[in-house]
Each structure stands twice: as C-alpha cells, then as structure tokens.
Amino acid sequence: MARFNRSIGLVDGIIVGQGLAGSLLAHECIQNGLTILVVDDKHKTSSTKVAAGIMNPLVGPRLTPLLQDYDAIQRLSKYYKALQNSLGASFLHEHRLIRFLSTPLECQSYRHRITRSDGPKLVPPTQDWSHRCVIGEHQFELHAVPQVDTTVFLDAMKNFLMRHNALINQRVSHNDIDCSEGQVNWQGLRAKWLVFCEGAVGDGNPFFPEKKFKNAMGHVLKVRMEGMPKKTILNHGKWLCPVANSDQDFLYGASTFWNQTMNQQAQSIRGLQSSLQSFLKLPHAIVSVHEGTRPCLAQQRPFAGWSQKHSTIGMINGLGGQGMAVAPDLVRSFCQQLRVNKVMKT
Ligand SMILES: Cc1cc2nc3c(=O)[nH]c(=O)nc-3n(C[C@H](O)[C@H](O)[C@H](O)COP(=O)(O)OP(=O)(O)OC[C@H]3O[C@@H](n4cnc5c(N)ncnc54)[C@H](O)[C@@H]3O)c2cc1C
Asked: In this structure, how many other beta carbons lie within 10 angstroms of the beta carbon of residue 136?
C-alpha cells in the first residue's frame, strides 16, 4: 500500500472504489493533470474481478447489438489498446467468437439478422465444432471480439496508481465524509470533490437515496480441459472463454440471479454445471466457482452524475453486465465535466 501523507493539502478529487469505473476515472483524471486519490477496500466486493471482460457484439437470445453503432466495438478495442500502452501491461485480447443457436427465439433472431445490412456480417464457422460441443441448428463466427483480462487490468491499474502515490487501501465509511463547507473532508484529506465508484454495494449510499438498485448476482466456473483451441470464445447462450497464459483453463458463465439465499446460489451453480455438461463433449473438470454481483440500477441505464443535495459528491454506477463496453464513454464525458469545473456550483 502506498503510504499516504494526510497533510497533503487540497487535492482535486477522491475516488471511492478501484473497480472498472474507479480505475478508468482515475486514469483519465491523472492523464488530464488532476490530482486524485483512490480509496479501495482491496476489491472486497469487486464485480470487475469476477467478470470475463467480454465485449460480445451481439448479445442474448435476440442477438441484440451491444452498442448502437457497430464501429464502436473497434473504437473500444482502440481505447483499451491505448490504455495498455499507457499502463505498460497486456490485458486486451481479441478472439474469434463462435455462436451456436438452438432455441426458437435464437433461430428466429438469426434468420432476421442475416437479412440486415447493418451490424457484423454473420459468416458460418470455418471449422466443424460438432466433436467438441453441441452446435445447435445455426452457427456463425465473428472475428476480433475484444476481451479484457480483468485480473491483469486491475493489477496494472493498481501499480499505475501506486506509482502516482494515489492509492489508499481502506474502506470508506459514508459517515466519515464531511462536505459541509463546499469541500470534501475525509479523515483529514481535503478534496474539491469525491466520486463514489462502489459498484453493487453503492446500493443504500446516503448521498444518493433516490437511486434504486436491482443488482444481478452471478457465478462463473473455471474449467480445465484439453483439445479446445485458444483465442476462441464459444457461446451457446452461455460463454466459454479462454484464460490468458493457460492452454487448458477456460471460464464458463455466467449465471444470473437476484436473491441472495443459499438456495438460489446453489441452484445457480447447479444450473451452470448442468448447462456446461449438456453443451461440452470434451472431458473437462471444474476447478473453481467464482461469484460476483453486477451493479445494476432499477432504471437499467448507468449513472454518472452528482448528488442532488451535495454538488461536490458524485457517483458512477450501474454499469450492469456490460461494463467493459459502457464504462469508457461514460467516464470520459464525466472527466470532461471535472476538467472544465462545471460541477463547482458553490
Ligand atoms: C459473473 C459476472 C460476469 C460478468 N461478465 C462480464 C463480461 O463478460 N463483460 C462485461 O463487460 N462485464 C461483465 N460483468 C460486469 C462487470 O463486472 C461490471 O459491469 C463492472 O465490472 C462494474 O465495475 P464497477 O467499477 O462499477 O464495480 P466493481 O468492480 O464492483 O468495483 C467497485 C470497487 O469498489 C470497492 N468498494 C466498494 N465500496 C467501497 C468503500 N466504501 N470503500 C472502499 N472501497 C469500496 C469494491 O471492493 C470494488 O473494488 C460481469 C459481472 C459478473 C458479476
């Protein structure tokens, strides 16, 4: 942990949380010459740590475009590549993705999508997958699908912040924040603003009582097997995604559930196991099970803005299940506001 001098005086901002949102915001701020401190409780409740980091251009059984504009996927790749260069790390991978479609809704969506001229071109897979998995009624192949290795990303970002003496490993209690005099004071540190990037545990944040959350928990299985080509994501509604730096390890997921009961959790894991079992023909072993919570707002759209009561307290949250695609633009335009100091209404 970076040792911190609490008599540092006034910094531009404090960011609570070093997940995807907090990391991207911190990086953007530092690149733009703002002085910031990030406070994170060692990823205790991190969704980013669990995420596979896939930016699948066509999601769900309806093959819904991830983003309105298909070129945005290429822009995202460019964004994360530039970030890699800035951090001196390698966490962006580009895979081919093979989609297998079985249900009537998936097949109908496929027939509809191949008639359209917008979006990616759906070409048949270049190889036969039927000895490795259940291939369904239709299949198509996409290329250069970006995926962020979130473990490497979080570590690289942590090292970057430590180099800038801008990371404190601690939990922030909402009660310790004083923003009564047009500035924010937290444990002796003074800042012009503080932005919460807490993820799912932001539910109940007293500075944003009007924000209602509908978080979605999920499990991911780590699976070990031989005979599966690397740099390929298989997707039959659930994805099987290679783990970087391993020829045998893959992530399979993710499940979705809303209730924290033990019963729901056990059902979610069992459901994922049997889905894998019915999809994969290659011998495999489940090495571990990971659980996380997608931060979702009830209104479904992500939020980046300011507290109605305190103009110095902000929040970026509600990235949902597609944070990698959603976060960059959201964070960039938020940082733009910080730079032009529009938020200081005092
Ligand atoms: C199973 C699963 C699979 C997923 N797969 C994908 C995928 O393939 N592609 C994709 O784009 N997205 C995926 N996601 C979604 C993605 O993980 C989220 O959209 C994104 O990571 C959310 O980032 P965040 O920064 O808002 O929250 P988080 O990653 O949760 O970060 C919040 C951070 O703040 C810390 N913190 C919270 N409160 C405090 C406090 N008071 N004091 C100090 N620190 C605090 C937490 O410990 C954490 O480190 C998946 C999510 C899950 C659960």
From this structure: 18
End-to-end CA distance of the chain: 34
| Cα 47 to ligand 1 centroid, rounded to whole Å | 3
Of the CA atoms within 13 Å of residue 76, those in its CB half-sphere come to: 29
Work out whether the CA dihedral 199, 92, 78, 62 comes out positive or negative: negative
Q: What mean pLDDT, rounded, does the chain reach?
A: 93
- The C-alpha atoms of residue 16 and residue 289 are separated, in whole angstroms, by 28
Give the residue whose CA is nearest to atom 15 of ligand 1. 321
Residue 220 Cβ contacting ligand 1 at under 6 Å? yes
| Smallest CA separation from ligand 1 atom 31, residue | 19
Q: Is 113 helix (H, G, I), strand (E, B) or coil?
A: helix
Long-range CB contacts for residues 239-245, cutoff 8 Å, separation at least 24: 239/52, 239/54, 239/56, 240/276, 240/279, 240/280, 241/52, 241/54, 241/95, 241/147, 242/93, 242/95, 244/91, 244/93, 244/149, 244/152
Give the global pTM: 0.94
Pocket-testing residue among 16, 39, 48, ligand 1, by greatest number of atoms within 8 A of Cβ: 48
Determine the length of the chain.
Answer: 346
Tokens matching residue 274: 């049997």
Domains along the chain with CATH numbers: 10-49+152-208+300-340 (3.50.50.60), 59-148+216-294 (3.30.9)
For the segment 154-185, what is each residue's pLDDT rounded down to a tens digit? 999 999 999 999 999 999 999 999 998 789 99
